[in-house]
Amino acid sequence: MPSLFARLPAFPWDSLEPYKATAAAHPGGIVDLSVGTPVDPVPELVREALTAAANSPGYPTVWGTTVLREAILGWLARRTKAAGLDHVNVLPVVGSKELVAWLPTQLGLGPGDKVAYPQPAYPTYEVGARLAGAEPVPYTGSVTELDPAGLKLVWLNSPGNPSGRVLGVDELRAAVAWAREHGVLLLSDECYLELGWEAEPVSVLDPAVCGGPVDGLIAVHSLSKRSNLAGYRAAFLAGDATVLGELLQIRKHGGMMLPAPVQAAMAVALGDDAHVAVQRERYAARRSALRAALEGRGFRIEHSEASLYLWATRDEPCWETVAGLAKDGILVAPGAFYGEPGEHFVRVAFTATDERVAEAVRRLG
User: Among 103, 139, 229, 354, which has the minimal tally of Cβ within 10 Å of its Cβ?
Assistant: First the structure.
């Protein structure tokens, strides 16, 4: 029997371990800018909601509470301008990575089907296609340039990981029109939507993009970055009611449900924009300091107009850059993790503490 594991590429982060050891040996300790994991506190009001819901002995529902769905719909109306959505248009999920990895399988895709995703790319798009036995199809241009034959699912990622690129309204509108014309389901990974710096990210659910109806479209959102809830595994889908209805039934069978206290905390987090503004200020200051330091060290920053990363290059092989910075005790992610277009780039996260970012700036100076 063929092994599911055999379909998968090597886990990329394992290859970074020797460089992590080098960086950790620095007298001042490691400054780890390789993974975009939140380091700042979970907002107090979110922790209070989690604690208040701690006495939850019964099973939660896969669809989530009415309160949670209302909070999702409220946020979507405020932030994406989506119109006419109802409870059937939303679905909580156990973190966005789990969703990306297993969505093709849950949609029934398999051999003979194709899944397209942009490059440079979050590696889990490819993993999701391979887990389903489908064919992964990376693309570097516009969605409209893809061959639709056999294509069942196409991913957008704006703001992008790792590059921080933001797709404009015209690009998004063209992708939506093309996907609808060819009967291809369009998935838009928008987990960094609230972290635009030099551009204002737009959702595919915005009527300016989709024309109002959300048929054929699913947007993926997460609270990991906006609310420091990576440890809570709190995310949700929004869009086509037919597709989400089928996913709901499949996920019911699989028991894929968010814990009840997490659902309560998530609803509170989505209803509050003040803590997001505070977190944005923290990230903006770290981003500004690291960008100036990297440019002073001879790096060129491309895209990076949104998200939590700087996409940096010195026009040398990325592993040379990783090795050089590791000697200074700074760990970054090689662009090769994200596909061939990244082989001369590194991804620099600005999710470290203020103290560690200041130390990185000192070492780069």
Answer: 354
